[in-house]
Amino acid sequence: MAESLFSPNPTAAREDPSYILQLEGISKGFPGQRQLVLREVEFCLPQGDILSIVGPSGCGKTTLLRTIAGFEQPDSGRILLGGQVVAGEGQWIPPERRGVGLVFQDFALFPHLNVLANVMFGLRPTTPFASAAGGGNRSSSTELRAELRGAAQQARERAYEVLRLVGLEDYTHRYPHELSGGQQQRVALARALAPRPSLILLDEPLSNLDVQVRYYLREEIRKILKQTQTSAIFVTHDQEEALCLSDWVAVMREGRIEQWGSPEEVYREPATRFVAEFITQANFLRCERREFGWQAEELLHIPFQALRDQPDPSLRCAELMVRQEELHLHPDPQGGIVIRDRQFLGREYRYCLITAAGKELHALAREALPVGARVHIAVGQGRLFPLAEGSSVAEKEPNRAKSKSVA
Q: Is beta strand 100-103 parallel, antiparallel or unpaired with respect to 76-81?
């Protein structure tokens, strides 16, 4: 996988065809809104890679996707596809000429067309029609009809090819209402892949499907995209979906990219408290520095070696992030923490804990402990976020360094 660039001024990557997509300083606003929906968004996506964009509702995810597709025009900045400027610097390439495939949340299939016709819709021959309309010097209408038949046959063969790819070659004569939701979404993916786009944009493609279908399809979609070496951008609100599908994850907040990195980097090394809370759904504990570690308000001692990063010696107060799987429970009749609730998740249990100070914590563990039991807890590993005067958390600046891919 190539190196991906995320920096305030990615001049080194300009017009570099090794990147399928480059965004430079993209901002976008709408009339009647005082705040920009997109604010100086910049990133470069390598050829063949998959990016997931996550963030809370209203952060600008879908607007960013529509701007890349060409349905919205940015107020400033420029967009390059395959090294070609498609927006900015006086250039504007309409959506139909960008070579971008689209997969929507609601499938957007034509109900009156069968599966084969839906997939072939974007493959209808246009060159012969254009030539005929322009008064081309064809010797006879027979030549035109032969060319049209040849183009139609090529479109049919390509449609069968992508339907085999998504496992629906035996469903060509069925109509959308005769298919399950998962099958309809695979038809939509086949239709997007059929014209061999340089980039596919997927807007919440799995959100309308049952949980088990979503688990299956997200694996299938990644496998198909990698098999065809197709670059893709997913917009999703599902953090787990983003982490397992993608080569890169971009976390958005209020129109900006808060952090960009590999799924492992974003999960294990969140750049800000916002990213940590949104991606990991971790516990946060206010702490004070002691001689041999940090002491939480919940009477929990955190040794220095349990922290991911060595804290600044001058730091006296902080907020500790502990992921649920890093909070280890040990039965203790004298413990000051009580198990209030237990949920069985299959491979593990999720515990809701109440501290003596009344704070609620959550932990994941394989051991079955009874509700009402007293425990003490230990931290496997944590991450400190400094507390600032006059506010709860002083968030670090977003990570704007180069993000290297995993070999």
A: unpaired
232: domain range?
A: 11-268
Dist. CA 297–CA 77, nearest whole Å: 47
The count of domains in the chain is 2
Report the first-to-last Cα separation within the chain, whole angstroms: 7
> Is the separation of the CB atoms in 208 and 188 below 8 Å?
no
Alpha-carbon distance of 21 to 5, in angstroms, equals 11
Q: How far apart are CA 26 and CA 88, in angstroms?
A: 9
Is the pTM value of this prediction over 0.90? no
Q: Phi-psi category of 401—alpha, beta or left, where left has phi over 0 and alpha has psi -120 to 50?
A: beta
Dihedral of CA atoms 402, 399, 80, 278 in degrees, nearest 10, equals 130
Measured in degrees and rounded to the nearest 5, phi and psi for residue 115 equal -60, -45
As a whole number, the mean pLDDT across the chain is: 82
| Helices and strands counted in the chain (H then E) | 9, 21
Specify the amino acid at residue 375.
V
Same domain, 258 and 121: yes
C-alpha angle with apex 21: 15 to 25, nearest 5 degrees?
A: 80
What's the pLDDT score for residue 289? 82
Considering the domain boundaries, does residue 357 fall inside one? yes
Same domain, 70 and 133: yes
Residue 277 domain flag: no
- Name the pLDDT band for 220 (thresholds 50, 70, 90): confident
